[in-house]
Write a structure and sequence with these properties.
By secondary structure, this protein is α+β, with helices and mostly antiparallel strands. It has a single domain (29-108), classed as Ribosomal Protein L30, Chain: A, CATH 3.30.1390. The protein is built from four helices and three strands. It has helices spanning 6-9, 43-52, 58-71, 81-97; strands spanning 30-36, 73-80, 103-108. The protein has a three-stranded antiparallel sheet. The radius of gyration is 26 Å and the shape is elongated. The protein binds L-tyrosinamide. The site of L-tyrosinamide has 13 residues, from strand 1, helix 2 and helix 3.
């Protein structure tokens, strides 16, 4: 006689059915990192920050920089809180080291 699988033969074993609802994963809150325009930070420096910190291509970086230059600010990227905060800190550190007043802030999406 072939051995039965345990749950068939042992009435004490309870088999689980699949949950009726999908287990929901909370969507992480996202934050926009903003670069603000000013009169002193060179355009090339803003582009360099966008390439080095935000991993933009040269041409995307140039468009984002020009958007900030023209409209007062631009969204450099959208990230979870810790990543957004790190990018703000990296940008602020680079600007401060180069003695430019470039302002970078974070805002809930
Ligand atoms: N307005 C600056 C200039 O004319 C360039 C600049 C662009 C500065 C975007 C900041 O977020 C900025 N040199």
């Amino acid at each position: 006689m072939s051995p039965k699988r345990q749950e068939e033969s042992d009435p004490g074993v309870v088999t689980k059915t699949r949950p009726k609802t999908k287990p929901k994963l909370a969507r992480p809150k996202l934050y926009k990192v903003l670069l603000h325009n000013d009169d002193y930070t060179p355009m090339e420096f803003v582009v360099l920050v966008l390439v080095q910190v935000f991993h933009k291509s040269e041409s995307d970086a140039a468009s984002i920089m020009l958007h900030a230059h023209t409209h007062g600010y631009a969204v450099a990227g959208v990230y979870t809180f810790e990543i957004a905060e790190t990018k703000v800190n990296e940008t602020t550190a680079l600007a401060s080291k180069a003695q430019f007043p470039l302002l970078c802030t974070l805002e809930p999406e």
